[in-house]
Amino acid sequence: MEHYNTANEKIDDQVETLLTGMTLKEKVGQVNQKLYGWEVYRKTDTGYELTEKFKEHVQRWDGIGVLYGLFRSDPWSSINFENGIAKDSSAEVANMIQQYVKEHTRLGIPVLLSEECPHGHQGLDSMITPVNLGIGATWNTELHEKLIAAVANEIRAKGAHLGLVSTLDILRDPRWGRSEECFSEDPYLTSRLTEAVVKGMQGEESDIIPEGKMIAVLKHFTAQGNGIGGHNAAPASIGERELREIHLPPMKAAIKLGALACMAAYNEIDGIPCHANGYLLNQILRKESGFKGAVMADGCALDLLVPLTQSQEAAAALALENGVDISLWDNVYTTLEKAIGEGLVSEEKLDDAVRRVLTLKFKMGLFENPFIETKTPISQEQAQKINLESARQSIVLLKNQGILPIKGSNKKIAVIGPNADSVYNQLGDYTPFQQEGKVVTVLQGITELANDAEVAYERGCGIRSLDTEGIEKAVHLANSSDVAVVVLGGSSARNFDAQFDLNGAVINTTGEEEMDCGENVDIANLELGGQQLHLLQRIIQTGTPTVVVLIQGRPHAIPWVAENVPAVLSAWYPGQMGGQAIAEVLFGKVNPSGRLPVSIPRSSMQIPVFYNHKEGGYKRDYFDMSGKALFPFGYGLSYTTFTYDNLRCSIQSIPVCKLLAGETFKIMVEVTNKGDRDGYDVIQLYIKGKGSSITRRVKELKGFKKIWIAAGETKEVMFELGTEELEVFSSQNKYRIEEGCIEIEVGNPIDFVSADLIIS
User: What is the pTM of this model?
Assistant: First the structure.
C-alpha cells in the first residue's frame, strides 16, 4: 500500500505527506541500519534467496531504512566468490530486496543500499583504485572527479544508492593505521579533492540525483586523523581553532557543492564523542554551515555511548537529540521507540531524522522506481584507463641520482622484495577478494616492459616477519644482475586468521599476519618492518645499482634509504593497475608527477612533523635530531626540471571591504620546462600571515595547479586569493579578514619565488 504521491510535488512536500501517515514503529525502522548486508541473502544452486533474518527485520519495523554492505566481500564478512553476489547478479539481488519490502510492508517505502567505496567498491569484480594517500599525491582534482564518477557508475549499476567514502580525515599522525584513507595532512588539498568526490559521485546539485550517480556519505566528521598517539578512535586533543582551521574545511567545501550525507567519527573532541556532540552536528554542521543532509553513525559507535548514559535508551536519546540520523549495526537505535515512550527524547526529534532519510530516498528517485535495470551498461575500458592514469600520477619520485629511467642496456633486472609480487599488499584495507589476473603486480609490470632483458624475482623477506631464510637468494640474484628493483613498504592485507571486532576492525592477530596498516593497525615505529631494511642493506653492499619502490599505506621513516639508495619511488597502495604504472615510471614511459600529500618523517620520535605547524619562536630542532621532515609536504621530483620566474600581482594592496565585496588578488607566474622531457608540474601557492590577532602557521597551502608543459615550453599560471583563502578564525572566535602583510610563495618546496601582499 503506497501513501505517497510523486506527481508534481516538491520533495519536501512529498516527505511531509509520507511522514504524516507513518507510525512510530515505522519511523524507527527508517533510521535503523542494523543488519549486515551479507546476512540478508543466501546463495543457492539456482541463484539467491532472502533469509529469514532479513524477513524478520522487515516485519519488526514494517520496513527497512538503510541496508549496509549487501555486496561487501572481505575476510571479516567471509564473503568470497563462492558465496557472494557476483557483479552480474547484483542488480537481481538488489531488486529482490526492494520487491520484498514493497510487497510485505504497509507503506512499501524503498530501501537505501549503502556500500563501502574507500578506493573503489568493496564488492566482487569491482575496480580497485589507488588509496586516498595516492590520490592526494596526484594533486589532480579533475582526474579524481572522473575516477569517482566511474566508481559511482559501477556501484549504482549494481543497485546501491549510498557510497561510504573517506574524504574528511586530515592526517596529522602517520602512526594511525587508517592513514591510507586520508587525502593529505593539509586541509586545502583535502577540501579540493573532497569537492571532486561530491561532483564525481553525486553530479551537479539538483533535486534528483542523475542517472548513474549516487549519494556520497563523506567520512569521518571530524578530527579522526588527530587522535592522541596515532591510536584509532582516540580522543582528538584539539581546541576550537584547530578544529576550524584544519578539520572543518573539507566538510564546509562539500556542503557548498550540495553534499547530502556524512558519517560521524569515532573520536571525541574535548570530552564529547562526535556522535553525541550537538555543538558539532547541530550548531556548526547544520545551523552555521548550512548542511541539509543526513548524518550516519559509524559502525557500532552508538553502542559506545552506553557507558556515558548507563542505558541503551538514554544513549539513543542522546545521539538523536544531538544530530545522528542513521544508525549502523548498533543495538542502541533499536530502542528508540521505548526511549520516546519514556520521554527521554521527543518524537519530533525522530521526525527530523526520518525527514532526512526520506529526502535521500526521494532524491534517488526510489519512490518512482526502486528497481535497477539489470543490464545497465558500464564502460569498463574507459574506467580502467582513468584508474591507470590515477595510479601513474600518484607515484612520487623522492630521489634519483641518474639511475632512472632504467636504461635499455641492462640485460638482467632483479625484482626483489615482499611487495614485488603480492596482489593484496598492493590494494590496501577495505579490499574485496580478487579474481586471478585482475591485479598487475610490479613484477608483472616490469616483465611486460623489459623487452629483451631477463627479469628474475626473489621475495627476500616479509613485511613484518623476522625470517631471514630468503635473504641470501635475493642477494645472490642482485649480485648477478645489472639493476635491482627492491619493492618494500607495508601491507593492509587482511586474512581469515585475524580476529575482528563487531565493526570489522582488527582486534587481535595470530602473529603470522603481515599487516602493519589498516583500521586498528596503529604502529609506534614508522621504520620499515621485519627484515626489510636488512635485506636492502645487503643488496646495496653488492654494488648493483638499486631502485627502491615503496608500496605503503602511510609514510614510513626511511633515513637510511634516502641516504644510501640511488633512486626511491613512493607508490602508496596503487590499486589494480599499480604494477603497470610503476613499471612505466621505472622505464621512463611515464614522467613521474606525484607530489607528497604528507610529510615523510625521519623518525617516529619527531611526530608531529606536518608542514603547517604554528609559528611561535620556539626551537624546532631537537638536541639530538633535526625537527624537519625528511621529505616535506608538496615535494616530488621529475625526469625534467621546472623553473619559476616573473612573479607578479594584479594589485599590491586591497582593503578589507573590497575583499569582502568579492575583489581578489590575482597572482601570475611563468613556469618553464628546462629539460628535454614533457611532463606535468604541480605549481603550489602558499601564504604566511604577518601581523594577526592569532598565531599564524609557518605557511598554508592556498592554491595549486597541475599542468602539462612540453620540453622547453613556458606557460603562465594564474592564482586568485580572496575572502575564502585569506580569512582567519580570529581571537574573537569569528571568521574575519585581518589587516596586515601576507607573504606568498609560488613554486614547490625546492624552488619558489615570493612576494608580499597588503590587506589594508
Answer: 0.97
- Whether residue 494 is predicted with pLDDT greater than 90 in this model: the reply is no
Q: What's the pLDDT at 379?
A: 75
Query: Residue 476: which residues within 8 A CB-CB, separation 6 or more?
Result: none
Tens of pLDDT along 341-351?
999 999 999 99
Name every residue whose Cβ is closer than 8 Å to that of residue 65 and which is 6 or more positions away in sequence: 29, 30, 31, 32, 33, 111, 112, 326, 357
**Most distant CA pair in the chain, distance:** 80
Closest among 96, 197, 219, 214 to 154, alpha carbons compared: 214
DSSP-derived secondary structure letter, 120: B
> By percentage, how much of the chain surpasses pLDDT 90?
93
Instruction: Give the C-alpha separation, 320 to 351, whole Å.
Output: 10
Using CA atoms, how far apart are residues 435 and 125, in angstroms rounded to an integer?
Answer: 7
What pLDDT was estimated at residue 615?
Answer: 86
Residue ranges with strand state E in 402-460: 412-416, 454-458
The answer to whether the CB of 720 falls within 8 A of the CB of 667 is yes
The distance of Cα 188 from the centroid of its chain, to the nearest Å, equals 15
Q: What's the average model confidence in pLDDT over 688-694?
A: 92
Residue type, 450: A
Q: What is the mean pLDDT of residues 242-268?
A: 97
Q: How far is 306 from 314, CA to CA, in rounded Å? A: 8
Cell 571568521 sits on residue: 735
Name the phi and psi angles at 666, rounded to 5.
Answer: -105, 125
Helix, strand or coil, per DSSP, at residue 68: strand
CB 640 within 8 A of CB 677: yes
H or E element in which residue 18 lies? helix 11-20
3 state DSSP class of 352:
helix
Contact 607, 173 (CB under 8 A): yes
Q: Indicate the DSSP class of residue 519.
A: T
Residue type, 728: V
Q: Tell me how far apart the alpha carbons of residues 120 and 432 are, in angstroms, rounded to a whole number.
A: 10
Burial class (CB in 10 A: 0-12, 13-18, 19+), 425: buried
Cα–Cα dist 428/139, whole Å: 20
Buried-exposed string 682-702: b where 16+ CB fall within 10 A, e elsewhere: bbbbbbbbeeeeeebbebbbb
- Mean pLDDT lowest among 297-306, 487-496, 676-685, 749-758: 487-496
Q: Which pLDDT band holds residue 428 (cuts at 50, 70, 90)?
A: very high
| Distance, CA of 561 to chain centre | 27
Grid look-up 608538496 returns 634
DSSP letter assigned to residue 317: H
Q: How many alpha carbons lie under 13 Å from residue 550 in its C-beta half-sphere?
A: 28
The answer to whether 416 and 486 have CB atoms below 8 angstroms apart is yes
Residue 412 has φ and ψ, to the nearest 5°, of: -140, 125
Q: How far is CA 391 from CA 183, 199, 447, 598, in A?
A: 14, 20, 18, 17
> What pLDDT, on the 0 to 100 scale, is given for residue 1?
42
CA distance 128 to 118: 9
User: Beta 483-489 vs 412-416: how paired, if at all?
Assistant: parallel
For all residues of the chain together, what is the average pLDDT? Answer: 95
Through-space distance between the first and last CA atoms of the chain, rounded to whole angstroms: 65
Place of cell 574507500: 118
3-state secondary structure 214-274: CEEEEEEECCHHHEHHHCCCCCECCCHHHHHHHHCHHHHHHHHCCCCEEEECCCEECCEEH
Q: How confident is the model at residue 375 (pLDDT cuts 50, 70, 90)?
A: low
In terms of phi and psi (left: phi > 0; alpha: psi -120 to 50; beta: otherwise), the region of 108 is left
Residue 286 contacts residue 320 (beta carbons within 8 Å)? no
Could you list the beta-strand ranges (E) of 110-160. 112-116
Q: What is the pLDDT of residue 5?
A: 57
Residue 319: name the closest of 331, 328, 332, 307 by CA.
332
